[in-house]
Specification:
The complex is a heterotrimer of chains A (379), B (295) and C (296). With 379 residues, chain A is α+β, with helices and mostly antiparallel strands. In chain A, the strands form 5 sheets. A 6-stranded mixed beta sheet of chain A has the order 6-7-8-3-9-10, with helices on both faces. In chain A, strands 13-12-11-14-20 form a 5-stranded antiparallel beta sheet. In chain A, strands 15-19-16-17-18 form a 5-stranded antiparallel beta sheet, with no helix packed on it. Chain A is elongated. With 296 residues, chain C is mainly α. Helices cover 70% and strands 1% of the residues of chain C. In chain C, a hairpin with an 8-residue loop joins β1 and β2. Chain C is globular, with a radius of gyration of 23 Å. Classes of the chains: A alpha+beta (379), B mainly alpha (295), C mainly alpha (296).
Chain lengths: 379, 295, 296
C-alpha cells in the first residue's frame, strides 16, 4: 500500500523535452491507468516512478518519501514489462524467486513463497520450465508472479497486454483487475488501448505530447472530455468533430450550408464565436430523408449487434451507430439528428472543452490543469 | 518449391565438385605426399595415392623439429590466449555497453583504434616493450616524481610474452558487445527492479546468457592463437619455448641434402591438425563466431 | 546503436575495462607513439640521442625504388587475392545455397582451409606447386621452365596469391552464404513464380541483394591482403620475399628492414604510410557500410 505524488515532474533528453511538468496524485490502493498515444511520455513517466529514468525536474514521492535519488530496489515498486523481460536462462521458479535471492532470503523460505505465488497466478505446474517453453499467456503470468512475490507497495505495468492475442488480452485484463482487488497495492498501468483503460481504471489519466490532458473516473472522462484530443481518443469509433460558428441570433451552429440546432444557452453565451462541436456516434440518430440534417451514406460497417454508418455530412464524414433493424446502403440519402443535449463544445483554437451552464448561460472553461488531481468530482 | 531444373542442377554439382578439387585437393596432396617414401614423393608425375609411410614420416618429423615441445607450447599459448580473451573482453564489453557514462565511448574508441595498428606496423617498438615491460612506467614515474627507479620485467622467452599482447586485441570485445546489444533493455531493467546491482547482473545474467558466444569465441581464438607466426618468432629465442609455427623452418629439407619432402609434409600435417580439428568438430560455433564478430 | 544503458557508475566500468585497456596501452599505444617518434627522428649509428629530422625519413623511403616495388607487389597481391577469394566464395556460396542433396557436406569441407595458418599452408604449397616435384613438375617436363617460382618473381607472386586464395576463399564463402541465406525466401519464390530459372535468379535477385556483403568483404580482404598477419606469414614461409623482391609485400619489407636491416626509422616511416592506408580502409568501411567494422 502506497500513495504516489508527482509534482511538476519534467523530463528532457538533451534539449528535447518529453514531459512538461506533470502533477498527479494517486491514492493508496487505487488502480490508475495512464492512457495516451505512443510517444506521449506515458512510459517515461512510469519508468521515472520505477527509478529507471532520471527525473530532470520536479519530485516524485512514494508513501511520503521523495524517491528522486533512490535506486529502483529502494522504492518498493515492482514492474511488469511489455515484453515481460523474463530471464531466458532461468526456470520459472528461479525467475519468480530472483528478487528474493538477491535480497538474501533463505532458500527454504524462498521455495515456499515461490510455490505460493505461482499458485496465485496458476503456474504451479510449470515451475521447472524455461520461459522459452511457455505460451504467451504463461509468460505474462510469470512476469506478474515475479512482481507479486516481492509484495510491493506499487505495481507498475508497462503495456503488459499488448503482446497477447485478442482473446487472451481480455482474459488477462480481468485477471489483473482481480489480482489488484486481492493484493490491494497501488497499481499504475500504462496503455494506449482505450478499452483496457476504460475497463481497468479507478482513475484514468489521459496524456498527450508530454502533458496531462485530463484526469478523472473513466465514465466522467467519457461523458465530459476536457479537450478534442480526449474526445477523439476515448470511445470507438471516436467522437465526431465539426468546426462551426455559433449563430448570434438563431440557436444554431453553422458549418457551410448546414445549420445544426444547439441549445439556446450555447448561442446566448457563445454567439458569433468559432467553435468545434462534438457528438459521439452512439448519440447520432439516423432518420428518413427529409427529417433532421441532410446526409448521404458513404459506407456501412456491420458489427452484428448493430452497425456503424459513415455518412457524408457537409464536407465531413460522420460515424453513427445505429441499431440492427435500420437498413441503409451506400448512396442512400438520410436525415441525421444530433440531439442538442449530447453536443460537446470545444474552443476552436485550443481544443479545450467549453461548458455552458444551462440555467444562467454563463461561460465556464474546463482545462487540463484545473482538471488535475481534484477534478474527479466533475458532475 | 517444386522445380525441375536438371541442367542447372548438373551445373551446380559441377561447380561444387570444382570447389572441392580446389579447396580440398591440396589436403589430399599433403596426405599423399606425407605417406610416401623420399623416392615416391619426388616422382614425376606425382602419385596421388597415399602409401604406408605416414607414421614413419610423422615420427621422423616429430624428432627432427622437436614437435613434442612445440606442440605443447603452441597448445599452452593458444589456451592462454583463448582464456585471457574470453575473460577480459567480456569485462570490457560489459563496461562499454551497460553503463551510462561518457567513459564508455572513450573505452570503445580505445579498443576500436587498435584495429588500425596491426602488429606488423609496430613490430619493433612492441618488441621493445616486451623486452622491457616497465619502461613506460619508469618513464612515467621519472616524469612525475623525478625519481629514477629500476624495476624491470622482461617478457622475452616466456608464456606471458607470447600471450599478453595477443589478449589485448579487439575481436572478442566486439563479439561480446554485439551480443550484449541484442539483449533487450528490459532484461537489465527487470534485474534492477529485482534489486540486482551491476556486478550481480553480470554474474547472474550476462555470463550464463553468453555461453554460446563464449564457445564461439573460444573456437576462433584457439585457432587464432595456434596460428600466430610473427610474434612468437620475435619473442622466443630459447628452443624450450618455441611454437609449432617456428618449427616449420626446421622441417624444410636441407638446402643441399635429401629432398625428403615426405617428412616435411608429414610434419606440417601434424601442425595443421589441432586447428583443423577444432574447426571441423566445432564448425557450428566457429562459423557463428566469425560471422558475429564481423558485424 | 546505443543501448538504454542502465547502470550508473564511473569507477565500476573503469575497473572492469582496466585489464584490457592497460594491455592495449602497453602493447598498442606506447609502441604506436614510438613508431611516430622514430619516423621523424634518426638514431646516430654510434649511440647518442635521436635527432629530429622532419620528413627526411619519408623522403628517403619514397626515393627508394625498392619501396615502390613493394607498394606495387602489395597492390597486386591484395587486388588479386581479393578478387579471387570473393569470386570463388561467391560461386560456391550460390551453388551451396541451392541446397541440393550433398551441399551440406561440401559446405562443411569448404571451410576447412581457413583453419590452416598462412605459413603452414605456404610451406605445403612450396611442395604442391614446386617446379621439380608435386603437381607442376609434369608440366615443366613438357614445357621446360613453364613454371618456376624459385626463378621468376611473377611466378612466385602467383604462388603466394594462390596460397592466400586457398586459405581465404572459405572465409568469403561463409559470409556470402550467410548473406544469401538472409535473402528472404519469398523473394526467390516470387522470381520463380515470374518464371525465372535458378541461374537467372542468382544474377537478377541474389547477387544484387548481396551487394553490401560483397562490398564489406572487398574492404576486409583488401585490408587483409595489405596488412593481414597471414600475408606476412605466407610470404615469409613460401618465398621469403623473393626471388629478386618479386614478392616483397609492404609488411614483409617493414619487418625485414627493422629486424634484418636495423633501419628503425625507415621501417617506422613505412609503417606510418601503411597505418594511413588502413585508416582509409576503415573509414570507407564506416562511411559506406553502416557500422559494420572489421574486428581483428
Amino acid at each position: 500500500m502506497a500513495d504516489i505524488t508527482i509534482r511538476a515532474v519534467r523530463k528532457s533528453y538533451g534539449k528535447t523535452a518529453t514531459l512538461h511538468g506533470i502533477d498527479l496524485a494517486f491514492a493508496s490502493g487505487e488502480f490508475v491507468v495512464i492512457l495516451g498515444p505512443s510517444g506521449c511520455g506515458k512510459s517515461t513517466l512510469l519508468r521515472m516512478i520505477a527509478g529507471l529514468e532520471d527525473i530532470t525536474g520536479g519530485e516524485i514521492e512514494i508513501n511520503g518519501r521523495v524517491v528522486n535519488a533512490l535506486e529502483p530496489r529502494e522504492r518498493g515498486c515492482a514492474m511488469v514489462f511489455q515484453n515481460y523481460a523474463l530471464y531466458p536462462h532461468m526456470t520459472v521458479a528461479d525467475n519468480i524467486g530472483y528478487a528474493l535471492k538477491v535480497a538474501g532470503v533463505p532458500k527454504a523460505e524462498r521455495r515456499t513463497r515461490i510455490a505460493e505465488t505461482a499458485r496465485i497466478v496458476g503456474l504451479g505446474d510449470y515451475l521447472e520450465r524455461k520461459p522459452a517453453a511457455l505460451s504467451g499467456g504463461q509468460r505474462q503470468r510469470v512476469a506478474m508472479a515475479r512482481a507479486i512475490i516481492r509484495e510491493p507497495g506499487v505495481f507498475l505495468f508497462d503495456e503488459p497486454l499488448s503482446n497477447l492475442d485478442a482473446t487472451l488480452r481480455v482474459t488477462m485484463r480481468a485477471e489483473i483487475r482481480k489480482l489488484h482487488q486481492r493484493l490491494s497495492a497501488t497499481s499504475v498501468f500504462v496503455t494506449h488501448d482505450q478499452v483496457e483503460a476504460m475497463t481497468l481504471a479507478d482513475k484514468l489519466v489521459v496524456m498527450n505530447k508530454g502533458h496531462v490532458e485530463q484526469v478523472g473516473q473513466p465514465l466522467d472522462i467519457y461523458h465530459r472530455p476536457a479537450s478534442t484530443f480526449v474526445a477523439s481518443f476515448i470511445g470507438a469509433p471516436p467522437m465526431n468533430l465539426i468546426d462551426c460558428s455559433i449563430d448570434a441570433t438563431d440557436a444554431v451552429a453553422r458549418h457551410e450550408h448546414l445549420a445544426i440546432p444547439v441549445p439556446a444557452a450555447i448561442s446566448a453565451a457563445l454567439g458569433g464565436r468559432a467553435v468545434t462541436l462534438g457528438i459521439r456516434p452512439e448519440e447520432c440518430r439516423v432518420l428518413p430523408v427529409g427529417q433532421g440534417l441532410p446526409a448521404r451514406v458513404d459506407f456501412v460497417e456491420e458489427l452484428g449487434s448493430g452497425r456503424i454508418v459513415h455518412v457524408a455530412f457537409g464536407s465531413r464524414i460522420f460515424a453513427a451507430a445505429i441499431p440492427a433493424d435500420i437498413r441503409v446502403v451506400p448512396g442512400d440519402l438520410i436525415g441525421l439528428a444530433l440531439p442538442e443535449a449530447q453536443l460537446h463544445v470545444f474552443h476552436r483554437e485550443t481544443g479545450k472543452r467549453i461548458d455552458v451552464t444551462h440555467s444562467t448561460g454563463r461561460l465556464g472553461r474546463h482545462q487540463g490543469q484545473d482538471a488535475a488531481p481534484q477534478a474527479a468530482e466533475a458532475v | 518449391m517444386i522445380q525441375r531444373t536438371p541442367y542447372a542442377d548438373a551445373f551446380t554439382y559441377g561447380l561444387m565438385a570444382l570447389g572441392f578439387l580446389l579447396l580440398i585437393g591440396p589436403f589430399a596432396v599433403i596426405v599423399a605426399g606425407a605417406s610416401q617414401t623420399v623416392q615416391q614423393v619426388n616422382a614425376v608425375p606425382f602419385n596421388f595415392l597415399p602409401q604406408n609411410q605416414l607414421i614413419a614420416n610423422m615420427t621422423a618429423a616429430w624428432t627432427r623439429a622437436d614437435l613434442g615441445t612445440a606442440m605443447l607450447n603452441s597448445f599452452i599459448m593458444a589456451t592462454l590466449v583463448t582464456f585471457g580473451k574470453v575473460a577480459l573482453s567480456a569485462l570490457t564489453a560489459f563496461s562499454i555497453v551497460f553503463f551510462r557514462t561518457p567513459l564508455k565511448h572513450f573505452f570503445f574508441w580505445i579498443v576500436f583504434i587498435t584495429l588500425m595498428l596491426p602488429l606488423e606496423v609496430r613490430v619493433v617498438p612492441t618488441y621493445a616493450v616486451a623486452a622491457d615491460l616497465f619502461e613506460p612506467i619508469r618513464l612515467l614515474i621519472a616524469w612525475v616524481t623525478g625519481i629514477t627507479v629500476s624495476i624491470e620485467w622482461n617478457l622475452l622467452n616466456s608464456y606471458a610474452g607470447l600471450t599478453l599482447p595477443l589478449v589485448a586485441t579487439a575481436t572478442g570485445t566486439f563479439l561480446y558487445r554485439q551480443f550484449f546489444l541484442t539483449l533487450p533493455d528490459e532484461l537489465a531493467e527487470a534485474a534492477r527492479m529485482d534489486g540486482s546491482g551491476p556486478v550481480r547482473f553480470f554474474i547472474d545474467m550476462l555470463l550464463p546468457l553468453s555461453r554460446t558466444n563464449m564457445l564461439a569465441l573460444t573456437t576462433i581464438m584457439f585457432v587464432y592463437g595456434w596460428n600466430q607466426y610473427l610474434w612468437p618468432l620475435l619473442m622466443i629465442t630459447d628452443p624450450a619455448y618455441k611454437t609449432t609455427m617456428m618449427s616449420l623452418v626446421s622441417l624444410l629439407p636441407a638446402e643441399n641434402g635429401t629432398p625428403d619432402w615426405n617428412v616435411t609434409l608429414a610434419g606440417s600435417l601434424i601442425i595443421m591438425l589441432p586447428p583443423l580439428l577444432v574447426v571441423a568438430v566445432l564448425q557450428r560455433w566457429f562459423v557463428r563466431g566469425l560471422v558475429a564478430s564481423e558485424k | 546503436m546505443d543501448k538504454r544503458a542502465v547502470f550508473r557508475s564511473w569507477w565500476l566500468p573503469t575497473a572492469f575495462a582496466l585489464p584490457q585497456l592497460a594491455l592495449i596501452a602497453l602493447f598498442f599505444y606506447w609502441p604506436a607513439v614510438a613508431v611516430v617518434r622514430w619516423a621523424f627522428t634518426l638514431e646516430p649509428p654510434f649511440g647518442g640521442s635521436a635527432e629530429f629530422v622532419g620528413l627526411a625519413n619519408f623522403r628517403e623511403v619514397f626515393a627508394d625504388p625498392l619501396y615502390w616495388n613493394s607498394v606495387l607487389v602489395s597492390l597486386t597481391f591484395a587486388l588479386a587475392g581479393t578478387l579471387s577469394t570473393i569470386f570463388i566464395g561467391l560461386v560456391l556460396a550460390l551453388a551451396v545455397d541451392r541446397q541440393l542433396p550433398g551441399s551440406g557436406a561440401v559446405r562443411f569441407l569448404y571451410i576447412l582451409p581457413y583453419a590452416i595458418a598462412g605459413p603452414a599452408a605456404g610451406m605445403a604449397f612450396r611442395f604442391i606447386l614446386s617446379p621439380e616435384r608435386g603437381l607442376m613438375a609434369s608440366v615443366n617436363a613438357v614445357l621446360p621452365d613453364f613454371w618456376n617460382p624459385a626463378k621468376y618473381g611473377s611466378h612466385a607472386l602467383i604462388l603466394v596469391i594462390v596460397v592466400f586464395a586457398w586459405k581465404w576463399a572459405g572465409y568469403t564463402f561463409i559470409f556470402l552464404l550467410a548473406g544469401l541465406q538472409s535473402v528472404p525466401k519469398s523473394l526467390t519464390e516470387a522470381a520463380a513464380m515470374d518464371g525465372s530459372g535458378p541461374i537467372r535468379r542468382a544474377i537478377d535477385i541474389q547477387i544484387p541483394l548481396l551487394a553490401p556483403t560483397l562490398f564489406f568483404l572487398t574492404v576486409i580482404m583488401m585490408t587483409e591482403g595489405f596488412v593481414g598477419p597471414d600475408t606476412y606469414g605466407i610470404v615469409a614461409r613460401t618465398t621469403d620475399g623473393g626471388p629478386n623482391h618479386g614478392t616483397d609485400v609492404m609488411v614483409y619489407r617493414i619487418v625485414e628492414e627493422a629486424f634484418r636491416g636495423l633501419n628503425y626509422s625507415g621501417a617506422s616511416a613505412q609503417s606510418i604510410v601503411l597505418i594511413g592506408l588502413i585508416m582509409i580502409f576503415t573509414f570507407i568501411q564506416f562511411r559506406f557500410i553502416e557500422r559494420r567494422v572489421h574486428y581483428k
